[in-house]
């Protein structure tokens, strides 16, 4: 009976190995014992019905060994050349090790530019899923040979998180040189304490020190793993940090959480769905069920995962510009029922030049409390064009705000005149709308990202107006929303 349940819990698993887990930090020799253990672990997982994707760093490290260069170069062209030399040898090494078990592999090289186009993104998703359905183990790496800073993922921790989000993986394992997330570097601080369960990456940042971890060969460290965990868990992926020295712990960890889920089923004979991991109290269930917990840190996935399109917008696109919104619009967009769609009434400015369909940063411009001397509610009311107490439902004020809305003297003194429908757009210049003048008393901060439905000039023309004015000013109206698929950071 248990084996039957186990089959229903087959999972899609992404395993990420950093350069320090693949090649020796000083000699640059491949760490064959670790690589062989990883291969045996993947073979075992596949025999249990799981689908596995490997995200493998190490191309530059292997290139250093091949060319007998003692240390990682600083120039981009040299790193790209070493990556080109090492990538072929790296994938050949993996293919040879998996070949001992007659396991087929496939190489997938990506840059952020490859998946910034929605069609190419979906093609990448479909390719990986097709390979998994064929019983192949995809081996993913960033295409360092052609990557530049504007289209790099930054490190393979981020790449692994985006990959797990793309294929809706169940687990992301980040293998590193320690067995979890610690409050400090355990190699240097004897008082460092391991954190077993993380429910909020934002909250945990204040409790841990991440600045001292990482190797001379790799580009990441524990901070990049926190970023990866934030991306993956937002997409509903259980993220786990554990040691690369014992890859078999991946099997033990999955068996542990499978047992937790099965033991959490109601004792009645009625058929019940197996509970999701995010719905289990991981802080207390271990002692209650007397299970041996493998050493690791688990980041619990979001109970409300980000939709695929929003995840793509937030994490795979390089923003071409920004749309500045008022505090009232930010309040509305922070509510899930808003649908992540922005009406022109909430826009007070545009930053940079961008085309329709490109990703944009969502920026909030507000008074610092010390400067404004106003409460948050008063500032929110001002941003919506009201001086009275804001209505409980900000949506109505947000949606109905138009150029003809009456303004109080206080609002007018800050927002100015709304007589201009057009505005010149200059690159890298803050395109302040007429109603908001430049002032050191304002603060601008990024709160999210979205997809622009109109270009920067068009959005600048309809800023602050009722959406019914769009056809009149632009000559057409594909939609009443100027930005959609917005993800607001918590």
From TrEMBL:
PROSITE patterns: GLUTAMATE_5_KINASE, PUA. GO terms for biological process: alpha-amino acid biosynthetic process. Keywords: Amino-acid biosynthesis, ATP-binding, Cytoplasm, Kinase, Nucleotide-binding, Proline biosynthesis, Transferase. GO terms for cellular component: cytosol. InterPro entries: AceGlu_kinase-like_sf, Asp/Glu/Uridylate_kinase, G5K_ProB, Glu/AcGlu_kinase, Glu_5kinase, Glu_5kinase/COase_Synthase, Glutamate_5-kinase_CS, PUA_sf. GO terms for molecular function: ATP binding; glutamate 5-kinase activity; RNA binding. Residues 381-390 have a biased composition (Polar residues). Residues 381-402 are annotated as: Disordered. HAMAP family: ProB. NCBIfam families: proB. This is Glutamate 5-kinase. It comes from Paxillus involutus ATCC 200175. The lineage of its organism: Eukaryota, Fungi, Dikarya, Basidiomycota, Agaricomycotina.
